[in-house]
From TrEMBL:
Record field: transmembrane: 7-26, 38-62, 83-101, 107-123, 130-153
Domain (DUF1468) ranges: 6-153
Coiled coil: none
Species: Parasedimentitalea denitrificans
Superkingdom to which the source organism belongs: Bacteria
Lineage per the UniProt record: Bacteria, Pseudomonadati, Pseudomonadota, Alphaproteobacteria, Rhodobacterales
Pfam families: TctB
Protein name as it appears in the record: Tripartite tricarboxylate transporter TctB family protein
Keywords: Membrane, Transmembrane, Transmembrane helix
InterPro entries, sorted: DUF1468 (IPR009936)
């Protein structure tokens, strides 16, 4: 079975578990007045589940490409080691670390670190431009979310006493 089918099979299993939660557990604790609403908190997860399951089943049961010639831009799954898997896995690890460090370290420091280190992993070497751009981009995003949208984001670490 091709790599895309294996990935679709894994996504299908995840969607089945997510669908079970969406259809049977999310709405269990709804108060009676909300049970008469047309749209419940589980409506969007239910729609996502159904669409994802349909897409995954189409890929898993779909017609195989066989031994067709690769077109420009296609990934050759038999030669995965020729691609830059180290960079991709490093970026995935960076995303997980960023998500874990967002609350204890604060939005500004963790976002600047994530953007800077990720850019270095991808090959950026002009540090003179990199740091000011990441600081400016982080500041703009923080301002828009905090001030314009009114959503509180802890800008600095706990130990600096930034409230919340």
């Amino acid at each position: 079975m091709a790599l895309d089918r294996w990935i679709a099979l894994v996504i299908l299993m995840i969607c089945m578990a997510y669908g079970y939660a969406a259809f049977f557990t999310i709405d269990a604790g709804l108060p009676p007045f909300m049970q008469r609403n047309a749209i419940w908190p589980s409506t969007f997860p239910k729609v996502l589940t159904v669409l994802a399951i349909i897409s995954s089943v189409i890929i898993v049961l779909g017609k195989s490409k066989g031994s067709e010639e690769l077109k420009d831009g296609d990934i050759d799954y038999t030669r995965l080691t020729d691609y830059k898997l180290g960079q991709a896995l490093s970026l995935l690890a960076m995303m997980a670390i960023y998500a874990l460090m967002l609350r204890p370290v604060g939005f500004v420091i963790s976002t600047v670190a994530f953007l800077s280190i990720s850019a270095v992993i991808l090959g950026e070497r002009k540090y003179v431009y990199l740091l000011p751009i990441t600081v400016l981009a982080t500041g703009i995003v923080w301002y828009l979310v905090q001030v314009v949208l009114g959503i509180y984001l802890r800008p600095l670490p706990y130990f600096l006493g930034t409230g919340g």
